[in-house]
Amino acid sequence: MNRCVCSLSVFALLAGGTAALAQVNDASFAAPSSNKAPASPFGTDALGDSIGCSVNQDALTGDLRNLGVEFAFGHYFVSRSGGFAIGTQVLSQYDANWNPVAEYTQVTNSPTWGNRDGAAIESENRLFFGAEAGELAEYVWNPTTQRIDLASSFTRTVSGVTGVVRALAWDTDRSQFYSKDFAGSIFIFDRTGNLINLMPSPISAYGAGYDPVARTVWFHAYRTGTTGGADAPKTRMAEWDPDALAATGREFNTDFVGDETFVGYIPGGGDVDVIGGQVVATVLTQGDPFDFVTQYAITGDGSACGGTGCRADLDGDGVLTIFDFLTFQNLFASQDPRADFDGDGQFTIFDFLTFQNEFAAGC
Asked: Cβ distance 340 to 43 under 8 Å?
């Protein structure tokens, strides 16, 4: 990789005091857009590191309404509304490399959108997806055929839930489901659909997944203060503690880096799994006609999509220049986890110094 010949240092950026940190999200410093799935810079065991490339669901399904995602039994499952104008909703199955395996007509009473977010109880060979009017679809997985047994699958209604079972997660430790419909309460119900508890929450979520290591729930949600339309950036993963019944304060953004032309992304389904020894979040971000599934590291370290393996190349153009400094400055000012270069969970002068040393060393 090439590196600019210059004597710029981190102290030059700090020379203006706090004013030097005021340039946040300045359009003139935006990373160049790309036709490929956007990449995210990665850090040192940083929460929210990207893992690989985003997968374009519209290209895979030919459908502009991809809604939920679940990784179970070594396969990805994506719920989509299909030709809902004629009452057809589809559940797509892919292998671990996103090769198409099978498609199923959804088990649902929904007249339009059908299944939303998914969850799984793998020990029982069961896959679940929520829908309108408190509906919970239970799909039966056949481990011999590696397919869903659609004839044995069915729906039930979760007691006490009159809205949409939109976000959905199964707690393997406490043996209970969590559901949420955007800004509504968090519904907690048992294996048979009986309501256990409900908790008000400011998290506006579409997807959810359970972290078996931390014993917490992660919601794929709108950012605080954003709702919909064109007010981007807007998507994040936010952690919630079932014991404290409160958010932990840990979160990371799931907006795409590199896509400046479309700003309408909203959170879709989500899942959390232990993959390869690290805890991984799998999220579907809806941005008709660009629906993407992206994975992020909750523990461990990710790698940039199509990246150079060079952390200092923050704008991803393959060259170390002043624009990488400016990108770092903006990330630091907004307290983006990607600016936590020393990996201590805080934003200090040592992040600047670590970045400067890596920039000076070249790649």
From this structure: yes
Domain 50-297 belongs to what topology?
A: Tachylectin-2; Chain A (2.115.10)
Whether the Cβ atoms of residue 26 and residue 309 lie closer than 8 Å to each other: no
The pLDDT profile of the chain, 363 residues, written as one tens digit per residue, is 444 434 445 445 444 433 332 222 222 222 222 222 333 333 445 688 778 778 888 888 888 889 999 999 999 999 998 765 556 899 999 999 999 999 999 999 988 899 999 999 999 999 999 999 999 999 999 999 999 999 999 999 999 988 999 999 999 999 999 999 999 999 999 999 999 999 999 899 999 999 999 999 999 998 866 554 445 557 889 999 999 999 999 998 886 544 444 556 789 999 999 988 889 999 998 876 678 898 999 987 776 565 545 677 777 666 788 888 888 888 888 887 678 777 666 888 888 888 888 888 776
- The residues spanned by each domain of the chain are 2-33+308-361, 50-297
Contact 135, 109 (CB under 8 A): yes
Kindly tell me the burial class for residue 185, based on how many C-beta atoms sit within 10 Å of its own C-beta (0-12, 13-18, 19 or more). Answer: middle
Q: What is the rounded CA–CA span in Å between residue 241 and residue 115?
A: 26
What Å distances lie between residue 210 and 184, 198, 249, CA to CA?
A: 19, 17, 16
Q: ∠ CA 74-250-332 to the nearest 5 degrees? A: 110
DSSP 291: -
Residue 301, number of CB atoms within 10 A of its CB: 14
Q: How far apart are CA 95 and CA 101, in angstroms?
A: 6
Whether residue 71 contacts residue 269, with contact meaning beta carbons closer than 8 Å, is answered with no
Sign of CA dihedral 66, 301, 98, 257: positive
Residue with tokens 């805890």: 279
Q: How far apart are CA 207 and CA 115, in angstroms?
A: 12
